[in-house]
Specification:
- With 201 residues, this protein is α/β, with parallel strands linked by helices.
- It has one domain: Rossmann fold (3-Layer(aba) Sandwich), CATH 3.40.50.360.
- It is built from 6 helices and 5 strands.
- The longest helix is centred in the last third of the chain and has 20 residues.
- The radius of gyration is 17 Å and the shape is globular.
- It starts with a strand and ends with a helix.
- The relative contact order is 0.19.
- The structure holds flavin mononucleotide (FMN).
- Flavin mononucleotide binds next to helix 1.
Amino acid sequence: MKVLAILGSPIRKRNSETLTKKVVESLKNHISKDETIEVDLLSVQNLKISPCVACDRCTRIKGCVFQDDMTHLYKAFNDSDIILFSSPLYFNSLSAQAKAIIDRCQAIFSSKYVLKDPMIDRDRKRLGLFISTAGVDMNDDPELFNGTLPVMDLFFRSINTEYVGNLFVGNVDQVKVMDNPEALDSAKDWARILAGKYKEI
Ligand SMILES: Cc1cc2nc3c(=O)[nH]c(=O)nc-3n(C[C@H](O)[C@H](O)[C@H](O)COP(=O)(O)O)c2cc1C
């Protein structure tokens, strides 16, 4: 099982990272004895990723004009079975660093729909989970994360990955996920669901 985990918070070791790592750790408990798990865990803090500049070059030549850490990510998207994408909720959307990764997937979009020479194996089955945390309590705003949904839907489509679901936790400025057993249990539940679905593919 190849797992790609992207940590989209500019700050390390906090809420969204803790949840993402809990899913990764729990996935390890669900793989069968004869199987191995390979984890590529990447933080935006260590990645150099330029934002898309809409130069349109990807509509003429396969790939992106920028040679930066997206080169690794394009390959990692292709090669992964499970993709965990996490971000804190910033202004009802993703962190700028996480969004930059998503926008750079325009090169994949162009390769498929303009150049008809895909950068990604469209037949490979991949499973995606979005993990996000927010300061506001979801009891006060049940629609808190709604702004992220169409973004993540398009992102997972662009990388030909089944968008299995979301792990959302609010109120993290009051109750950190590290002190929230329910949130950590949800991470474990998602690992079980993903591992179960992985066995079917
Ligand atoms: C720039 C910025 C924008 C934010 N916007 C929101 C928001 O729109 N809604 C919300 O509930 N919390 C918002 N927050 C709070 C963060 O979502 C919360 O602290 C975050 O989930 C922490 O994630 P992390 O610990 O993984 O970095 C914002 C925080 C920052 C720094």
